[in-house]
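Dissemination and training. As part of the outreach component of the grant, students in the summer workshop were shown how a complex can be specified as a set of sequence lines and then modelled as a single object. The example used during the hands-on session is reproduced here so that future cohorts can follow it. Participants entered these lines:
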Amino acid sequence: MTADSIRNAALFHFAKDGYEGASLRAIADEVGIKKPSIYAHFSGKEDLFMHTLVHAFHEVQRHTLEYFRDHAHLPLEERLQGLLAWFEQEYQDHASARLMLRNCYYPPPELYSQVMDLVYPFLDGMERALTRLLQRAIREGDVPPVPAEQVAIAFMTFLDGITVEIIYGSSRRYKRRMDAAWPVFWNGIHSLNEKAHPIVPEGD
Amino acid sequence: MTADSIRNAALFHFAKDGYEGASLRAIADEVGIKKPSIYAHFSGKEDLFMHTLVHAFHEVQRHTLEYFRDHAHLPLEERLQGLLAWFEQEYQDHASARLMLRNCYYPPPELYSQVMDLVYPFLDGMERALTRLLQRAIREGDVPPVPAEQVAIAFMTFLDGITVEIIYGSSRRYKRRMDAAWPVFWNGIHSLNEKAHPIVPEGD
DNA sequence: GTCTATACCCGGATAGAC
DNA sequence: GTCTATCCGGGTATAGAC
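and obtained this result:
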């Protein structure tokens, strides 16, 4: 279907150049049609952009669920750490992820609220999913009891910190951060209940 | 001087609308001059942008140094945690910080390498400064011995994760992350030397 | 240095034939 | 649905008077 291939071309251009930077002309060229033909499928640039963005969110969500489904057998630490490595790959391989991320941070001002109606539910859903994951891991004895919601939020923070280096695009810098920061996170969550700082993670 | 006021107006527009989104017309209007007058001071949009960006980096760097100088007497934990709160304020109060951040993540494609020549040295300088700060704190017994460089990198990661919520602009969400993630970071760095918890670095 | 006037281009969008 | 042709507005940039 033509609409799909337009959306697909738009995906790459919006991801690379942003909403203002991308041009319908370039998108049409890539599909192999003329600019006005786009208007047979979308009412305008905004419409095309929003369709593309919604589709990108769904793609990323679908892939994320697949990741968790395919790695449900791993211990929690590997599953969480693996999620970060997985996400780096996702970012490099799929323009959906790049488009999503870019517009989480810097949506086009005139579409701000429409975009945020996608962003916030996504983030909140992610956080809830992580919380449930943690609660299950605790029940099953995979990790010692930690405050699940707090850890989920901390993990999201950590994920975003790593993501920055993914955007920068240097694999070396990314790995460096990962190696340095992961132990801090992982050790840190095990001592949340004990208030003093010599922390000896007990009985697990 | 007129050039300065042009740069200052440009700062706000570039920070808010991005490079493509900002228009010389709007900038000239704000200064109270006509569009062509800008060309008496800058060779074009790119030139104006780069001047503005360099100036913004210097500003942020200067403010950061001031923060550390003015808070040198505080214990390390408060100094580091305070840096995050300070940075949120800096982001809200100073367009320099907003411009810098935006262009660290998404520079205009045609100026990519020029922008990155500012970004990387800034980040690396920040990391080195943190490392030295930590080493001094360790020497002075303010914190137990921790691997300074690793902690510096982890802190930068953490800072970026928090920064994301600063960009989102919701103070509530920011505070929520801060409260959840800070204890994880702070406790986490104190257990780096104790290997009690098995951290499996992936084979190198 | 600043203005007016204007050239030039490229963006999104529309009309209407096929 | 796709095309050609065109419109309109906005953008950067320049020429030349003052």
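Chain B has eight helices and no strands. Students were then asked to discuss how this feature might be tested experimentally.
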